[in-house]
Amino acid sequence: DIIPQPLLDQYLSMTDPARAQTVDTEIAKHCAYSLPGVALTLGRQNWHCLKDTYETLASDVQWKVRRTLAFSIHELAVILGDQLTAADLVPIFNGFLKDLDEVRIGVLKHLYDFLKLLHADKRREYLYQLQEFVVTDNSRNWRFRYELAEQLILILELYDPNDVYDYLRHIALTLCSDKVSEVRWISFKLVVAILQKFYANSANALGLNFINELVVRFRHCSKWVGRQAFAFICQVG
Known about the structure:
Layout: H1 5-12, H2 17-22, H3 27-42, H4 48-58, H5 63-97, H6 101-109, H7 111-115, H8 120-124, H9 127-130, H10 142-155, H11 161-176, H12 181-200, H13 204-219, H14 224-236
Helix pairs in contact: 3-5, 4-5, 5-6, 6-10, 10-12, 11-12, 12-13, 12-14, 13-14
GO molecular function, one term: protein phosphatase regulator activity
InterPro entries: ARM-like, ARM-type_fold, PP2A_Regulatory_Subunit_A
Protein name: PP4R1 phosphatase
């Protein structure tokens, strides 16, 4: 009763490959772009009407279609709620994480927005995968690593100090030694945010260990770039 059935049928038929050949080669991309709006209009109780179409679009051969969905999956998660997100969106989200960089950047830009909607146990599973974002198809794609550092600053609040120390600390140290200065600068802010996380949660031992590691790695570095990095970290702090 929310949307006239013929109109909904017309929308769902946009994923038909024949339509792309006869109507518009980018019709699937248009369908993907408007899907969150259709889902919001129908409401989560009618998600079953769109689920198959969404899965079809998520596996479309055109990366632009998958990229469009990747950029909006966090919005769809808000619309569907935690249960439907865990059941129907998490598998697709996991697929996007292993996709081309052009698709991965979509989930990376809103990584915090998506992870905060998951239950804590499901969220912890992604700790192992976050470091995979450091590796890109093209090493010159430094904006990807910059975006990762920015997201990690936000993501720190979602994990306890021990998880931050065991997983996110390694990523931060790697990014602090990046070849691109913009990536290093944002990574220095990430390092300071990690230290603030430790001391705000009374994890003083972890904080001290991390400081000692920074001293060994950067303060006593044989290269001036490393020693400069230590000075900048102190400046940010």
